[in-house]
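Handout, section B. The chain below has 500 residues.
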Amino acid sequence: MSLTGIIRNAFLLRQKELERHISGGKELQEKVLQRLVNCAKETEYGHNHNFANIHSYEDFAKNIPINTYEELKGDIDRMRHGEKDILWRGQVKWYAKSSGTTNDKSKFIPVSKEGLQRIHYAGGTDAVVMYLQNNPKSRMFDGKGLILGGSHSPNYNVAGSLVGDLSAILIENINPLANLVRVPGKKTALLSDFEEKRERIARETLNKNITNLSGVPSWMMSVLTRVMELSGKEHLEEVWPNIEVFFHGGVAFTPYRSQYERLITSPNMHYMETYNASEGFFGLQNDPTDPAMLLMLDYDVFYEFIPMDSLEEKKAVPLWDVEPGKNYAMVISTSCGLWRYMIGDTVRFTSVNPYKFIISGRTKHFINAFGEELIVDNAEQGLKYACEQTGAEVLEYTAAPVFMDDNAKCRHQWIIEFSKDPSSVEAFADALDKKLQEINSDYEAKRHKNITLQPLEIIVARKGLFNDWMKQRGKLGGQNKVPRLSNSREYIEGLLELKG
């Protein structure tokens, strides 16, 4: 029996357990909540918020406030300095570095031993479980997986404590047996210089039997492009004949799909979206024909959701009270010590039996300068339509408002780096604008007769502009993402300065 066959058999029990997600969501989540509260009741946070007397969701919601990073930052910094039993039991030694807040360049998300095993590794395992279940002919473990990660560094002067990209923390702590089926080697995988890392990964993997890929689509494409340059081949399956799946996450795949499909023409290639953030592993695409992801309900994550129209009041509801079709800000409590924590992502449920959802945007990554309430999900749909209409392919983009002039005229300004130019930039802009009006009534109202919002403007970026900008900001590679929408002009002005 092949190694893939052995692993497939080992996952049969978990396949049965996952069936509980179809109708037992409330029960699973109530068990998670009680487990988290019981484990943390002797911590400082547990004492301060009366965890010992929490016996229901209502008790939990009454005793604990909704938190952002700013509210937990002081406790997290104490934990980073080695203090024990603060937000979670024992000493937490790993911290995932994430994009910053208004007041700080970076956030440092605690990753406990329990969180590592019962959230992050659990999600990675289930991604394979579901993929093998959907693809009975898979031979993915008969070759190696190319896993693209970031880097880490020592955390203060605390012995054995690390801070860095979540992916680097996962690679650092991975079961040694997993190294038998993954590349590159740890030394290369954890390099901090992405350009050097890209070169070394491409050369290390060029003659390997790569069957699967895992990583952020934008950075993975950069690596694959270098592989193709070194190989001189036209399609990736000419380099790696047994390539069969890309487990992707971190950014929306829609702008990249056509590029991957052009690079990999094999009919045996599959794509599976994962929702694995620094704060936790939350969702998996369990049906390849459905872009919505299954919310993972039996990890060490308890979910709550704030309707976007109640965001300022921070009125959360538990999972079992969500409604399909509404946009919610996601709130989590985890075994890493994040209690009722707003992670900044917004989701929209497509189903509640089972609970399936799409990531619709960010609570802060949107444009609402003129009442148009444009979210990332709108942008992705609009760009997809514009690409279809003009034969274009988008590599990277960002958008921001151009504020009102003396004549009360304003517009949205987009900087787009195309991997394949549109037949006409004007036609692309018209198609994008048309689609945004179709799917967003607030945008449509503001665009009515050009009275308030003028037609959007597209600036075509030179090749490599976004890469240069991310490098300048020290955010090249790893899990860093290009901000898609912003209510301010901070990001877009930086890009314009580099545009040349």
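Note. The longest helix spans residues 113-134. Compare this with the example in section A.
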